Amino acid sequence: MSRSLVFPGQGAQYVGIGVSLAEKHPAARDILDRADRALGFALSDIMANGPEADLTRTDRSQLAILTASMMAFAVVKQQFSNFGRTLAFTATAGLSLGEYTALVVAEALSFEDALGLVKVRGEAMQAAADAVAGGMVALVGPDEATATALCAAAAEGEVLVVANLNCPGQVVISGTKSACARAVAKAKEFNCRRAIPLSVAGAFHSPLMAPAAERLGAALAGVAFRDPKVPVYANVTAAPVVKAADLPGLLARQLTSPVRWADSVVRMQADGVTQIWELGPGKTLSGMVERTVKGLAVRNLDTAEDALRFADAVTAG
To answer: Is 25 a catalytic residue?
Structure first.
């Protein structure tokens, strides 16, 4: 058995995120309390009560998802401990923002430092989004080469690039609002069954995020990273990272580079991973994994009800 723990990114938030875990599991409540103390405001209240407009702000949603994902990890870890066992895993990974959770779980970064970095990251991304009207479009059907060709055809001198390679047949592109609109109009010409404009604040994982990457880079330089205890599969390269020195550059590049999630899943399986557990809000990554490779055992934990279903995995070790 070789298990990888994976963590979701922005877009997984919902009003009530983490509430059931905090109500039923002291380990989750402790994570939530630590987040409130570190941030100096009641993130827990926004997570529980919204309003949705506040929770979906880039500078709030990222903090909420990081915290909720760490709560889920804390619950599973405690469940194993309750049975006299240790939660064993051989790798971690996360989608975009989720890479920070993966680094905390791999002990390359403290939770409090991750909160500080994600706060800067969210604020910097929001500022970059406010500076230029940008958007993202999910494409159903094309491969990377076809999506790249669509971007070239629709850009007309503006920014439009491949931003997320989620799973076979699911690619997200990112750029200026007008370029995104042209891509939607041309999508059928490029073997896209659907082209869905996403409800996001800006053109994430594109060159339009360069100011955010610069600001985040300065914050990353002030944090003491440690060598991960297990390999962390980086979004930018889809390769395992084991050295602390590599992390700041990869995390800064992530804001302007495509997220190679499908390649990361393929690489994890090639490296011997047989189980993937998605810990945190939603089931998006689980679906992507199952559409990317066959033969992996996939589980997910978001709510207290999900935690109950993990009992069999805990007793099995």
So the answer is: no
d(CA 301, CA 282) in angstroms, rounded, equals: 8
What's the CA dihedral at 238, 67, 300, 258 to 10 degrees?
A: -20
Catalytic residue, candidates 69, 96, 257, 264: 96
Q: Which of 44, 69, 174, 205 is catalytic?
A: 205
| CATH, domain 3-129+208-316, list 3.40.50.620, 2.60.120.1440, 2.60.40.10, 3.40.366.10 | 3.40.366.10
Query: 95 with 47: CB under 8 angstroms?
Result: no
pTM score, two decimals? 0.96
Query: Mind listing the pLDDT tens digit for each residue in 131-140?
Result: 999 999 999 9
Domain boundaries, the chain: 3-129+208-316, 133-201
Query: Token pair of 217, please?
Result: 């880079």
Level-2 CATH architecture, domain 133-201: 2-Layer Sandwich (3.30)
Q: What is the pLDDT of residues 269-279, one digit of tens each?
A: 999 999 999 99
